[in-house]
Amino acid sequence: MQSEQPLPRQSLEQQIKVIASKDLAERKTWYSPAAESYNRTRPRYAQILERVMEVAPLTTDSTLLEVGCGPGTATVGLAPLGCSITSLEPNPEFYQMARQNCEPYPNVKICNTSFEEWPLEVGRFDAVLAATSFHWIPAEIAYPKAASALKPNGCLILLWNVIAEPGETVYQLTHDLYQTYAPALAPADSRELQQDWLNSMADIVCKTGYFKQVEAEQMTCELTYSTEDYLTLLSTLSPYLSLAPQVRAALFAGMKARLDQAGGSVQLSYLSAFQMARK
Predict the structure, then answer these.
(1) Fewer CB within 10 Å: C terminus or N terminus of the chain?
(2) How many other C-beta atoms lie within 10 A of the C-beta of residue 26?
(3) Phi/psi at 133 (nearest 5 deg)?
(4) CB atoms within 10 A of CB 101
(5) Is residue 91 in some structural domain?
């Protein structure tokens, strides 16, 4: 399993290409092995949602379509607004979790379907929102269908929590383990790559021809995880899900030993952002 020469780290663009290469049936169940871990450890959207609520034209009377709600990570932050929310989620495990997480909110309806298969309701919604999910849908479907679902002058709102990265200490502690087991995934300071990726997603919205007046904001967020929770978080990321189970287990075992010895916690920094565009 050793690699004689370091391999380049898998870029965000490459990860998106991997996602795009999967057929719909595979995408529906991709996160099933890590559904509970995803629900427990993925970063929330509370801080960026505060800004969205300040700038987006949403009221208690608004109708909102959420695309790919997962276990309701962003939904539970939106629901207290009181507007009518229809959330689509094709993964069966996520669907059940979202129903449970959103049970206190009668204004939320969770539908176990993909955006691709969802029967289009033309011009019904004031906003279409997707939280780190829109890149899972082929662009030739995602943007025109979202535009068709919106009322005139309705908003497309894309939320992003861009891959959390550890600091230099974790990099130094684990670099040789990655070179042994998964060279393309070695953690590094990729803030510039994160920023480039966010910019590229905003550019796509502009270039589709379906939307205008793109407004974007972002903030840097910090989280501290225990070693166990950090490895659990990694297990929910597509590049790690793609690893052979025995390779992932060996990598994580080595990382756990070193991170526990170094104090047992990992501080992560990530970009949380929104992009909002008018139909």
Answers:
(1) N
(2) 10
(3) -140, -20
(4) 21
(5) yes
Report, as an integer, the average pLDDT of 155-161: 97
Torsion of CA 231, 234, 240, 241, to 10 degrees: 100
φ/ψ region of 140 (left if φ > 0, alpha if ψ in -120 to 50, else beta) reads alpha
Instruction: Work out the pLDDT band at 187, boundaries 50, 70, 90.
Output: low
Residue 2 lies inside a defined structural domain of this protein:
no
Residue 249 clears pLDDT 90, i.e. is over it: yes
pTM of the model: 0.90
State the CATH number of the domain containing residue 211: 3.40.50.150
Residue 180 has pLDDT above 80, yes or no: yes
CA separation for the pair 88, 66 (Å, rounded): 6
Tell me which long-range contacts 255-264 makes (C-beta under 8 A, separation of at least 24). 255/173, 255/174, 255/177, 255/227, 255/231, 256/227, 256/228, 256/231, 258/173, 258/174, 258/177, 259/170, 259/173, 259/174, 259/227, 259/230, 260/227, 262/169, 262/173, 264/226, 264/227
pLDDT tier for residue 7 given thresholds of 50, 70 and 90: very low
Question: How many structural domains comprise the chain?
Answer: 1
Rg (CA), the chain: 19
CA–CA distance, 147 with 224 (Å, rounded to integer): 38
